[in-house]
Task: inverse folding
């Protein structure tokens, strides 16, 4: 590691981004005619430091075996590496290892809970609190990523429950003015994102959790955009379930995490069944293992879990407070620089408070002279080496609510530098010039 | 990257001044297509005269929202198919689609594709191929509805 470990006097110091960047081989490359890579798409997936790549390779070269099977030395080492990573990852988000379930991604984590709730229909009385039916309500928000929306739509369709949602204000904040009405005695579950992947908005979790728990509803937190970018403690937040994905936090793809409060995982029916998740199997019936194994059917991802453990080590050594502070400064620059461009409109809070490192915007309004479609804008950015995302970012209802088909989104991480925000603004001006919009 | 390679002047001209834009009556079939990646959408109508595959494309009208590539492609489409027999229009559609899926390696026939050859540069960018094809997919879908109906009657 080229950074100071936490707990030293350097803890509060700003990040040495140049030193950090040396850990990320991909950041050294060029794109499209030898232009320096300006990677502003970490909200979609982050890049991985050597330490994570090395951990995966080291595991595969020395200890690879199927975990929780066999008694040979490699199986033992592989299982220790897997469970050791679970301990680290759990600690990183303030929970116990027994409350951490590995999935292939965050989407699967949400689906696991949704299908477990369906399966509660035929489970015993211990699963009562997961059972849904007509008259019950599930609450989402208008700013959800499709991953925390579609599974709940489908659950409502399967069970006859009713889907409700919180609106979003023009500024891009959650509209909780009707909290007491939307979350009521019929509410069984509230699914909400911690930080919007489009707007950057950080939602007031405490208020929602307090209300949901008062009416006996469960809270599922989509933490995909918060865990990688700020210190997050699920225990302190008081949520019942939470999901996040490895590839957005310097880790491998193909690994996601579902957190569930222990007492809930202990009574929740399984989703996927098969090997590894059983206790006793007879030819006509089976009983199931204790969580988290109950929810990890089949041979699990192994090198990916080890890689995510290394990512957590890396982030912990840097310090999540410093990561958050660094991104806050990048956002500050973006919120100052971008609106100076004529016709550019930020979609999301323009005040740098309760706000993370996703900055989405449009250039001009459709049907007017200054308009440049996000797809065209993204193409010019790409031509300048700026890798930003265009489209609806898997949040179509949110874009509809904001009255726009698509946005350009720049999303920052610990390895981004101030001059890259300037490069983004320059590239937007280049697009304006190219399309004759200014 | 040479932006001019993708955004040829012909494409920008069609984007700024699209041909036959707007939805018109009467029409024989309508198709709605959406690009789920970016949310762009198009509603396209066709008006045919004559019967079955011997019919002629009398009018193509459309409305929607999309990037310059998708808007220009549908404008060019109307130039290439209006006034032509259905058979010919569908073989033009096939030629355009083949070019767009060719990763820039398919040599387009300018006699067939006319202004459409300007999109050969777009074919090098896989993420933009769907933009150029959105209107053409709507056209093929709408025509097949009419032709199938006529064929079935």
Result:
């Amino acid at each position: 590691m080229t950074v100071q470990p936490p707990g030293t006097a350097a803890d509060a110091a700003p990040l040495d981004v140049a030193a950090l960047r040396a850990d990320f081989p991909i950041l050294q490359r060029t794109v499209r005619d030898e232009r320096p890579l300006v990677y502003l798409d970490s909200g979609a997936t982050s890049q991985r430091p050597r330490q994570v790549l090395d951990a995966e390779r080291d595991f595969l070269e020395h200890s690879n075996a199927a975990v929780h099977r066999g008694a040979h030395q490699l199986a033992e080492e592989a299982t220790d590496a897997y469970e050791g990573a679970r301990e680290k990852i759990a600690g990183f988000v303030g929970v116990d290892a027994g409350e951490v379930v590995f999935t292939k991604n965050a989407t699967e984590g949400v689906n696991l809970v949704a299908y477990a709730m369906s399966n509660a229909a035929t489970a015993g009385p211990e699963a009562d609190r997961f059972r849904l039916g007509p008259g019950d309500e599930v609450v989402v928000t208008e700013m959800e990523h499709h991953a925390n929306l579609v599974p709940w739509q489908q659950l409502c369709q399967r069970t006859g429950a009713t889907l409700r949602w919180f609106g979003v204000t023009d500024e891009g904040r959650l509209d909780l003015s009707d909290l007491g009405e939307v979350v009521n005695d019929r509410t069984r579950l509230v699914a909400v994102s911690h930080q919007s992947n489009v707007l950057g908005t950080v939602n007031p979790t405490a208020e929602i959790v307090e209300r949901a728990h008062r009416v006996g509803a469960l809270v599922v937190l989509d933490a995909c955009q918060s865990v990688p970018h700020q210190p997050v403690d699920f225990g302190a937040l008081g949520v019942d379930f939470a999901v996040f994905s490895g590839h957005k936090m310097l880790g491998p793809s193909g690994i996601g995490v579902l957190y569930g409060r222990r007492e809930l995982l202990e009574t929740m029916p399984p989703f996927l069944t098969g090997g590894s998740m059983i206790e006793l199997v007879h030819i006509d019936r089976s009983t199931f293992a204790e969580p988290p194994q109950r929810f990890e059917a089949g041979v699990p991802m192994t090198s990916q879990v080890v890689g995510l453990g290394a990512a957590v080590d890396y982030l912990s050594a840097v310090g999540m407070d410093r990561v958050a502070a660094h991104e806050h400064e990048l956002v500050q620059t973006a919120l100052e620089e971008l609106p100076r461009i004529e016709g550019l409109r930020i979609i999301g809070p323009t005040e740098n408070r309760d706000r993370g490192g996703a900055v989405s915007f449009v250039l001009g309004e459709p049907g007017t002279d200054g308009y440049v479609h996000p797809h065209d804008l993204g193409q010019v950015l790409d031509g300048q080496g700026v890798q930003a995302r265009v489209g609806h970012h898997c949040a179509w209802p949110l874009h509809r609510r904001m009255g726009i088909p698509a946005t350009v989104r720049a999303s920052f991480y610990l390895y981004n530098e101030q001059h890259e925000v300037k490069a983004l603004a320059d590239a937007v001006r280049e697009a304006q010039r190219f399309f004759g919009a200014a | 990257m040479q932006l001019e390679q993708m955004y040829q002047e012909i494409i920008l001209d069609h984007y700024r001044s699209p041909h036959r834009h707007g939805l018109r009556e009467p029409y024989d079939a309508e198709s709605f297509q959406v690009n789920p990646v970016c949310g762009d959408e198009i509603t396209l109508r066709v008006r045919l005269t004559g019967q079955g595959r011997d019919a002629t494309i009398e009018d193509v009208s459309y409305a929607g929202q999309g990037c310059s590539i998708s808007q220009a492609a549908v404008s060019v489409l109307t130039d290439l198919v209006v006034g032509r027999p259905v058979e010919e229009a569908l073989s033009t559609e096939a030629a355009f689609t083949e070019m767009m899926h060719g990763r820039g390696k398919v040599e387009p026939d300018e006699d067939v594709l006319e202004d459409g050859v300007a999109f050969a540069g777009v074919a090098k960018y896989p993420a933009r191929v769907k933009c150029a094809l959105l209107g053409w997919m709507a056209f093929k879908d709408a025509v097949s509805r009419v032709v199938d109906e006529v064929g079935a009657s």
Observations:
- The CA atoms of residues 71 and 143 of chain B lie 19 Å apart.
- Chain B touches chain A through 19 residues (CB under 8 Å).
- Helices of chain B lie at 3-6, 9-16, 68-81, 86-100, 110-113, 126-152.
- Strands of chain B lie at 29-35, 40-49, 56-65.
